[in-house]
Write a structure and sequence with these properties.
The chain is of the alpha/beta class. The chain has helices at 5-14, 22-34, 37-53, 70-74, 86-95, 122-127, 143-156, 181-189; strands at residues 55-56, 63-64, 79-83, 101-104, 134-137, 162-165, 192-193. The protein binds zinc ion (ZN).
């Protein structure tokens, strides 16, 4: 059976979303087709708004609607927690233990994927270190996350700033984004000095 053209197109577009196979894409497409106009208008609006109004914080690289994100604008800047992606900030903020600010690298060093230090927001991090007491390296506890944390520690420690690593308590190879709050809280509390 072949889908009529507009439906086939919608299924193809939805199928580009992560973890959405053709069957799921078709289910979503039929749902959209049968939904009330208000529902589909709200979906289209939400997508447009996110694309138009959300961008990176000029300080930390987190997502924000403003020039500077709420965390950078309001919190203690003496402790910076370095993460791979904005999604990690959402996970760490759920813990509520951390009162400092963040810095998003935009990836991790990965020779296999040809990502080097210059491809990450490392220069921006170094520029922020004036008056900072501690940098918490909260990249994922996998090979690339560890290598990136070690690279950063080698850059930052000679500047006389304390470098810590939160990995302890997180299972090896796990991802911060999906870690539960208790595990993250423990990992943050028992961070080790590098
Ligand atoms: Zn920010």
């Amino acid at each position: 059976m072949k889908y009529i053209e507009p439906l086939a197109n919608l299924i193809a577009q939805l199928g580009k979303l992560p973890s959405v196979g053709e069957k799921t894409a078709a289910r979503y497409a039929y749902h959209i087709l049968n939904a009330a106009d208000e529902e589909t208008d709200a979906l289209i609006d939400a997508i447009r708004t996110v694309k138009r109004e959300v961008h990176f914080c000029s300080v930390c690289g987190n997502y924000t609607e403003n020039e500077v994100c709420d965390i950078c604008a309001s919190r203690d800047k003496s402790v910076i927690c370095v993460v791979k992606e904005p999604k990690d900030i959402i996970a760490l903020e759920k813990v509520k233990d951390f009162k400092g600010v963040y810095h998003v690298l935009g990836g991790v060093i990965s020779p296999l994927e040809r990502v080097g230090p210059d491809d990450l927001r490392i220069k921006e991090l170094i520029k922020r270190l004036d008056g900072v007491d501690e940098v918490i390296l909260a990249t994922n506890p996998d090979v690339e996350g560890e290598a990136t944390a070690m690279y950063l520690a080698r850059l930052i420690k000679p500047l006389g700033i304390k470098c810590t690593r939160i990995a302890r308590g997180l299972p090896e190879g796990s991802v911060i984004e999906y870690a539960d709050e208790r595990t993250l809280s423990r990992a943050l509390a028992s961070r080790i000095v590098l």
